[in-house]
């Protein structure tokens, strides 16, 4: 991902890399290029502007002009600031509950159901947890079947009740089942819609209030560009969620909106999805992502 942005930053920094006399003017020119690259990659305007101002201030403050290797110093500053922009240190998820309840939110097609399975598989195999998946989409029977198939694939139990049309009741029954059967994590997959609407928000908010999850995660398709930021904001306004899951980072995404999400909603990106398989999940590392962006 981020090929576009990476290439552009590379181009912008090329003249500074490793050698050459640097003046205040070409620091300004370079940061302008960096800003343009960020904007082209769909990064929110205000964030791109603040970002490049910080880079410029630091570059001039740290005597890039007199440094022996000004280009490398500049690349380091851009990388540090990019890492900071995406959240600094990696954040984990709260598994302290008995059981820990994790509520998944997001639009239809964002990758919620797939990620619910990936997370269950990750917690089972990497953290020795005993998860239970709960299917709360009462509108699309296919969504329940999909979670059921995922559960079979990773050998994780799935709770569902096709006769029940009340997602709050299903979520509560799922948690009760988890307690009774010794599951220490409950992952609740909810219904999404194709766009943000009041009914979906009211429903997810009702589930959220009723079950008080340890973690509320917002799943978003990284390929949806600037819309991803707007959707994140809409869900965060209602749920005040704990973290973001960026899916489809294996795809041909410009990815710039991903950079903006953390800044706009001030919530960490916790995991990324990198494919359709159950193993295609990674903890989000801001510094690794910055490395990838800068190439
Ligand atoms: P939901 O409606 O939010 O539950 O979304 P789904 O989990 O059904 O995912 C929608 C589509 O995206 C499915 O075809 C998934 O296989 C696919 N998908 C989910 N996550 C990823 C990912 O990280 N990479 C890719 N390439 N596809 C994904």
Automatic annotation (TrEMBL):
<keyword id="KW-0733">Signal recognition particle</keyword>
<dbReference type="GO" id="GO:0006614">
    <property type="term" value="P:SRP-dependent cotranslational protein targeting to membrane"/>
</dbReference>
<keyword id="KW-0378">Hydrolase</keyword>
<dbReference type="GO" id="GO:0005525">
    <property type="term" value="F:GTP binding"/>
</dbReference>
<keyword id="KW-0963">Cytoplasm</keyword>
<feature type="domain" description="SRP54-type proteins GTP-binding">
    <location>
        <begin position="268"/>
        <end position="281"/>
    </location>
</feature>
<dbReference type="GO" id="GO:0048500">
    <property type="term" value="C:signal recognition particle"/>
</dbReference>
<dbReference type="GO" id="GO:0008312">
    <property type="term" value="F:7S RNA binding"/>
</dbReference>
<keyword id="KW-0342">GTP-binding</keyword>
<feature type="binding site">
    <location>
        <begin position="189"/>
        <end position="193"/>
    </location>
    <ligand>
        <name>GTP</name>
    </ligand>
</feature>
<comment type="similarity">
    <text>Belongs to the GTP-binding SRP family. SRP54 subfamily.</text>
</comment>
<protein>
    <recommendedName>
        <fullName>Signal recognition particle protein</fullName>
        <ecNumber>3.6.5.4</ecNumber>
    </recommendedName>
</protein>
<keyword id="KW-0547">Nucleotide-binding</keyword>
<keyword id="KW-0694">RNA-binding</keyword>
<feature type="binding site">
    <location>
        <begin position="106"/>
        <end position="113"/>
    </location>
    <ligand>
        <name>GTP</name>
    </ligand>
</feature>
<feature type="binding site">
    <location>
        <begin position="247"/>
        <end position="250"/>
    </location>
    <ligand>
        <name>GTP</name>
    </ligand>
</feature>
<keyword id="KW-0687">Ribonucleoprotein</keyword>
<comment type="function">
    <text>Involved in targeting and insertion of nascent membrane proteins into the cytoplasmic membrane. Binds to the hydrophobic signal sequence of the ribosome-nascent chain (RNC) as it emerges from the ribosomes. The SRP-RNC complex is then targeted to the cytoplasmic membrane where it interacts with the SRP receptor FtsY.</text>
</comment>
<dbReference type="GO" id="GO:0003924">
    <property type="term" value="F:GTPase activity"/>
</dbReference>
<comment type="subunit">
    <text>Part of the signal recognition particle protein translocation system, which is composed of SRP and FtsY.</text>
</comment>
